[in-house]
Design goal:
The protein is mainly alpha-helical. It has helices at residues 9-21, 50-65, 70-76, 95-107, 123-143; strands spanning 79-81, 89-91, 111-113, 119-121. The protein has a single domain (9-140), classed as Orthogonal Bundle (Arc Repressor Mutant, subunit A), CATH 1.10.10.10. It has five helices and four strands. A two-stranded antiparallel ribbon has the order 1-2. A two-stranded antiparallel sheet has the order 3-4. A hairpin with a 7-residue loop joins β1 and β2 (89-91). It is globular, with a radius of gyration of 17 Å.
């Protein structure tokens, strides 16, 4: 069985976002259409479904780097802030977005708190991610037969 390590994130995250869109527990809050993704951004995201893409990316990050906390997740989605004539500086992304997505993933029982701090993927979350990874790898194997060794 394939895992999230075997599939590129660019292919995995949109498919995972579509699966998360089907869940009732994951939905953008009222303030999501006005929120910037962090201090390093000038405007809020344009795409209507950006919340589901972010939730999918957070689930993948927790899968790969777990146990991981909300501050570290915010840092993963950060960037360089334009400070005018001063040199650019690395800043975190929005911690409110990170907290809210983690809460929604916990409500969906895809992520849970670890006893040593941070969040880890549950069995249900691992099954979802691994199932999608296997599907994607099978699709990719039709184009590149060398990938069948990972199935």
């Amino acid at each position: 069985m394939a895992t999230a390590y075997d599939v590129p994130a660019a292919k995995m995250v949109p498919r995972l976002a579509e699966e998360l869109r089907k869940l009732d527990t994951i939905k953008p809050p009222e303030w999501a259409m006005f929120a910037k993704a962090g201090r390093h951004r000038e405007k809020s995201p344009i795409d209507d479904g950006w919340w589901f893409v972010r939730a999918a990316a957070v689930l993948r990050k927790v899968y790969i780097a777990g146990p991981i906390g909300t501050t570290r997740i915010a840092a993963e989605f950060g960037g360089k802030a334009d400070r005018g004539s001063k040199p650019n500086k690395a800043v975190r992304g929005s911690r409110s977005i990170a907290r809210t997505t983690i809460k929604q993933l916990e409500t969906s029982q895809l992520v849970q708190k670890d006893k040593n701090g941070g969040r880890v993927v549950t069995g249900k979350g691992r099954k979802l991610v691994d199932g999608l990874a296997t599907e994607l790898l099978k699709e990719m194997a039709t184009q590149n037969p060398e990938l069948t060794k990972y199935l």
